[in-house]
Amino acid sequence: MSIKQNISVALVTGASSGIGEATALRLTAAGYKVYGTSRRGAVQTGQRSFEMLPLDVTSDVSVEAAVSEVMQREGRIDLLVNNAGFGVAPAGAEESSIEQSQSVFDTNFFGIVRMTRAVTPHMRHQGSGRIINIGSVLGVLPMPYMAIYAASKHAIEGYSESLDHELRTRGIRVSVIEPAYTKTKFDANLLAADSQLEEYHETRTVLDKVLGEVMAIADEPEVVADVVLKAARAARPKLRYTAGGLARRLSLLRRFAPARVLDAGLRKDLRLDAIKKPQMS
């Protein structure tokens, strides 16, 4: 098998819309040979400048098949962008069953683990590569009533930092992109908690309204795509990159603001203290 070296090859998961699609388009415009993936595979919407492959990140067989397909065609993978993921609508942590929580982790976290395990041997063989994981500012600043989603993003942070230490001596670097709110179909497709309790009804209503307001002024997915390209091209890549002004401000607050100030500001922004406490019968 000949290895083509005149063009960098990128594999982007969850590229049918939103951040994944914007990233695939941005990388293509920058000169990468891009393969996007989604569960539906090659279903085309409009004139895409990159090819789509079928890939389900929760399936070992599907992951291996997609990576093998790219390797067979191109002989190398220079950049892996792990973007596939989903979230649960705001709800109490106890309102998500164990099965639902496992499902979130299976896509958001173990999907990244599967993809990384499939691609890393090829990058080690070629002596170079970049792995960029799309995390969230909630991976460093947890949001109340988003516990399961935030936990999956915290897992990405820890995994990525450990992995970067392991692989950098083999020519491979790992980075995490940390967006805040981004205008995608993500918020429209949030999975409702599957064990809802009346105790949290008003809280869910308030937070749904807050989420709708912030999404109306959220960053476009191209903001994240630009940061992905920056990390991919960096001669000395950083472990963490924030994407957008809000994410940058929240990250700085997490690092430098006193815990009491941060706690009060978070509760105020989410209007948590205005929610009436349910009366005990």
TrEMBL record:
One Pfam assignment: adh_short
Its keywords, alphabetically, are: Oxidoreductase
Q: Return the InterPro entries for the record.
A: NAD(P)-bd_dom_sf, SDR_fam, SDR_oxidoreductase
- Has UniProt tagged this entry with the keyword Oxidoreductase? yes
* Family of this protein: Belongs to the short-chain dehydrogenases/reductases (SDR) family.
The identity of this protein, by name, is: Oxidoreductase
Organism annotation: Methylomonas fluvii
